[in-house]
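Weekly modeling sync, notes
Attendees: S.R. (lead), two postdocs, one rotation student

Agenda item 3: backlog of single-chain predictions. S.R. asked that every request posted to the team notebook include the full sequence so nobody has to chase files. The rotation student volunteered to paste the first one in as an example of the format we agreed on. Action items at the bottom.

Example entry:
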Amino acid sequence: MGDKEAGKFEMIPGIEEPLTADVSPDVAEVVEEFMSEAAEQNEAAKESSEALPGKPLPYISFENVSKSFGDLHVLREVNFCVLPGETLCILGRSGVGKSVSLQILMGFLKPDAGTVRVAGEDICGFTERDMQKIRRKVTMVFQNGALFDSVTVGENVAFPLRERGDLGEEQIQQVVKGLLEMVGVAGMEDLLPSDLSTGMKRSVAIARALSSQPEAILYDEPTTMVDPLMGQLLGNLIERLKRQLHLTSIVVTHDMRFAKKLADRIVFLHEGRALFFGTMEEMEKSEDPILREFFSLDELVLPQ
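Predicted structure, as returned to the notebook:
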């Protein structure tokens, strides 16, 4: 992992503890070095994306993107962008194309029209081999975790580390242990995914995503079907990852409280279109009747 000094990734005011606060002393140094390396890479990527000083280009953008399945128009000329280090939340009712947008970004689906840019590259014409390079920079945490069912939790998290080919086995095991402790599932290396709850699977999926040292993480409904405590823990973790590792993030969610906690900006999808794109504050001030109805329904489901 190089000769960089350990423990130097940036602490941001308001985030009380570093990501490695709960990591065991026996692996802390290796894990801090690993996370510091990731933070430095992401900061360098952010600086290199600046068209002018202080004016970064979007890390991810949708430009007039459309997608249909037969007669069902899921996305209709959708536009939004995510700046480096920013968190975008995608909101909207079920079936409006939130998860489809993530699948397009990962190359699992191709848009029918429009341009999709990731890390400065138009990926619409990319082959599967081309997309493998993008997926080294951008990874996704699926609703079900998408873990390898036939191998242990530890082997799941170790998989991207082994792909690197530059780490010794002892380093790999230390990083795996530290990442699992960071995401709140310490000591579960030898369990199978089938032994875990839904929330724990998502925590392990985040640990596996982090082990690839990505520049961006896409989260598909991270708090769906988890208890409120686990939802709060996942929200805190995602926020700390953004601030301390400079990660770019897109979070698909139906949870307004979750979005208020995390989002720098919001895109609200309705009937295949981006009805709103801006900050949460701007969205709350909007007089659009569809947005007002969405807020009203949310208050009924989640009373203050």
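Discussion: group reviewed the output briefly. Residues 23-152+213-301 form a domain with the Rossmann fold fold (CATH 3.40.50.300).
Action items: rotation student to repeat for the remaining queue; S.R. to check formatting next week.
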